[in-house]
Amino acid sequence: MKNICLIGHGMMGIWHAEALRGHPGVRLHSVVGRDLPQVQAFATEYGFAHAGINMIEAVNDPAVDAVIIAGPSESHAAMAMEVIKAGKAVLVEIPIGMTFAASEAVVHAAEAAGVMLAVSHPMRFRPERRAMLARIQAGEENVRHVHGRFFIHRLVNIGATGIRRNWIDNILWHHTTHLLDFGLWLAGKGDAAAGAARIRRVQSFMPGIDPHTGTPMEVAVLIETHDDQSILATGSYYARERIYDTLVVTSQESYRLDELTSTITTGAGSESAVSEHENAWAIARDFIDALNSGREPLVTGRSVLPVMRVLEQVQAEWDARHGARSIPGRPLDQLNLAAI
Fold this sequence. Notes:
Pfam families: GFO_IDH_MocA, OxRdtase_C. The protein is of the alpha/beta class.
């Protein structure tokens, strides 16, 4: 039986709590947030034994075996380092960090400490893609093109729970991470590092800072591989229509999975897919099952470094045009928890 500490109780905190409530081999030990009455209410609703606002104290509790980090994106790397220092296994929500250096530092720290480090990359978990991936690995289909889109209206900082947040999303280091990692993972036949090793060129566009939000609001990244594959990620926080989908074109078929309608469409037509919500449950459950069985989690920290390196290249191009700086939701010092 593993005692779990959850940091953060927004949408992903809710989904992780739902996934583990009643799951074999796990006890919901503690939850940590910023507002104690809200944290206590969450603990009562989902069955956590303890609620608090001191993250350092919670992760160093000798009773805690593992920690799930579902706080603001900008705090993930610094929080993960604190958990690793405490010697606890950790599952970090996407992204693991918001610079390559911070992401790599977390991975190295976990490996040096012998601590399990899992990362939440839900597109790798989808059951609808297992058969397609098996065919790609067997050489029965070859990936030609992967296009991921994320469009949402986010001029006002309200998240998926409908509550105004005290932190800002970053379109490159959050939503584009999902899309590019998925493309590299498929291009590498289930190995993002293998996909990244075949990159021939990366082209990108991000506009300057929006005066209302203080952050870039649009992105387009195109990756070309030496195998003449293309991986394209596009998104905008200005869009009035909400779009979140991926299109995979292979030598044999096309597959478009709409995350919002839970529908997958191929040349044969459309059929239902598991919801984004249900798919997310698999992530925390895989983490616990890996911990209990002594195996690696499905998505390790090291396996996500290839996409973080590509994001760093895109960020460096933006920095060269607009000037490197801390912006809302992305402080340059990613490993200083006190500064976040």
